[in-house]
Design goal:
193 residues; 2 domains; mainly alpha; Leucine-rich Repeat Variant
């Protein structure tokens, strides 16, 4: 059984056999094997799906991360993972997919509004902005009143949307107490003109 270092090196030297063997190792080796196989272009959707159900959070998080370049992998179940870091990564990957499947958008809306962890809300709002589904506009606007990092992401997530309610949210963000939120609003205004 190859160790983590050998699996990582295999991902850089083109040794897909060693990289794949790492999928049977301990959690750290399995997570590294996912990255090595992805780097080699040999990671399958089935391997990712299996890793998304792994008992170890490190493997699930890495699987969600590499799933970003595998749009056929359904991340909806992972958006309900018990670990917020896995959920945050899966939300980001959904944004990379730009999939407007109703179940993806619905779950991201729920996370944007109700997730206990601000990082999860931030990633979900960002993903909704990348997807640009009109069903998300209300939750994105609501997120402009969340914690600073979430507000900043929410302002940027307004980019694909138009309307008076969007303009009003951007105007409010231009007066936000956090300079990064104000900067995001200014950048968005410049991009719109």
């Amino acid at each position: 059984m190859p160790d983590r270092r050998a699996v990582a090196i295999a991902g850089h030297t083109g040794d897909a056999v060693i990289a794949a063997a790492g999928l049977a190792g301990d959690a750290a080796v399995r997570a590294t094997a996912l990255g090595a196989l992805e780097r080699l272009g040999k990671l399958t959707d089935e391997q990712i799906i299996t890793a998304l159900d792994d008992h170890d959070v490190r493997v699930r998080r890495r699987a969600a991360e590499v799933a970003a370049t595998h749009p056929a992998v359904d991340l909806v179940p992972t958006l309900s993972d018990t670990d917020p870091n896995v959920v945050e990564t899966a939300a980001w990957a959904c944004g990379e997919h730009e999939s407007n499947r109703p179940e993806v958008v619905r779950r991201l809306i729920e996370l944007s509004a109700d997730a206990a962890e601000p990082l999860v809300r931030e990633a979900a709002v960002a993903a909704l902005g990348a997807i640009g589904d009109p069903a998300a506009i209300d939750v994105i606007i609501a997120a402009t009143s969340d914690k600073p990092a979430v507000r900043r992401r929410a302002v940027l997530a307004l980019a694909p949307f138009e309307g008076d309610h969007v303009d009003a949210a951007i105007d409010r963000a231009l007066e936000d107490r956090d300079w990064q939120v104000r900067q995001a609003a200014e950048d968005l205004r410049r991009a719109q003109s």
